[in-house]
Amino acid sequence: MVESGDRRYGPAPLPQPRGPVSAALHDALTSAPHDLPADLASEFDGVDPIDNEDLQLTLFLCYELHYRGWRGVDDRWEWQPSLIALRSRAEAVFEVAVRALAGPQPPLLDGRMASALAAAVAADDGPALSAYLQQRATHEQFREFVMHRSIYHLREADPHSWALPRLGGPAKAALVEIQVDEYGGGRLDRMHAELFRVTLERLGLDNGYGAYLDAVPAVTLAGNNLMSLFGLHRRLRGALLGHLAAYEMTSSLPNRRYGRGLRRLGLDKAATRFYDEHVEADAVHEQIAAHDMCGGLVRVEPHLAADVLFGASAALALDRLFAAWTLDSWQAGRSSLRPRGPGAPITLHVDEPHRATGSETASLMTGLAC
Amino acid sequence: MTSTITPYEDGPLIVRGDFELRTPDGTPIAPGRATIALCRCGRSAIKPFCDGTHKVINFRAGADRDTPKPR
Ligand code: FES
Ligand SMILES: [Fe+2]
Ligand SMILES: [Fe+2]
To answer: Hey, how many other C-beta atoms are within 10 angstroms of the C-beta on A224?
Structure first.
């Protein structure tokens, strides 16, 4: 149990539980590693995992042990067998739901991976969150958006780095080319996670790692858990690369909108730098990701093509749910974050979000910087 | 000094390696990263770099030398 003196870099503060399973796990984590009750995961039978706060937090509690860990929690919990067993049960339920949401994948024509990814991205008719943030969001709503995104951006690129030891050849070289840029070419002040920290500070927000975990709803945790699921299972390496490609391919245009939104609200260059940087960086990354990385992967392992497309579709689908949740909350005059205080129920309603029309779609996508 | 310039289908030119980007009067243009994308659709707002606008305008271009059709 090594405690870092700098909250910016983790370990994360242990979040409050959101149901019986996360409560039992939370409790257990505060003492030395020991066996969890064997039937704990049966609580998850028959739930809709994507909007289930208890399941998503349980997964997040298990996964974070593989990133920066939890403050005050024994690091040996990471591989405690009963915790891994609980995680596996939750993952199985989650993966089935994500596969259903992503839908069947079209067959690859002549091994044209990049065109298939481009088609998946072009067909994505998500709600117009980036347009809203550019044109209408209040200062407070933009802060909320940034709080949601902080869960990922403060460890930006990390889940996809798990693919590195699992690959050889052209896909690996391409992934390294992207990740080097994500990590600022090895310069701390250029690392994308560090650029995001500046945005948090400029907006008067907490720059601590995991500081907003209690505030974000299941749908936000689910997007993060998806990356960890793909990253921690070698069998899902194709999906992990497809996920990264989808992020890179839906980033430049929305990030331009986020930057404009912040400027409209009077924020300065330091605050928008994270978004401005992603307009340019991800215009490079998207080419490398689609052609060299995913294309390179399926040249070596053609049987992974469907997984790549599944990973991309899953990334887009979960991001659509996030955008719908956020816009629905704002349009109903609510915060998109969880109410403060324990026990407040949150239900996610996901049908018929506000859709962008055909030609608008490309510029209105939700878009995640990556 | 070795570098490569690769046209990517329907997208920018990707430049890698040991290169220097300069204005006509010789002033260096900071590339910002080791591998860069140069706009070839003409519509980027951050020229000479690509900003993804080529997708919005449906830019089409091959990844090899274009050969004009004989008349
Ligand atoms: S080639 Fe990408 S914006 Fe012109
Ligand atoms: Fe990126
Ligand atoms: Fe990034």
So the answer is: 23
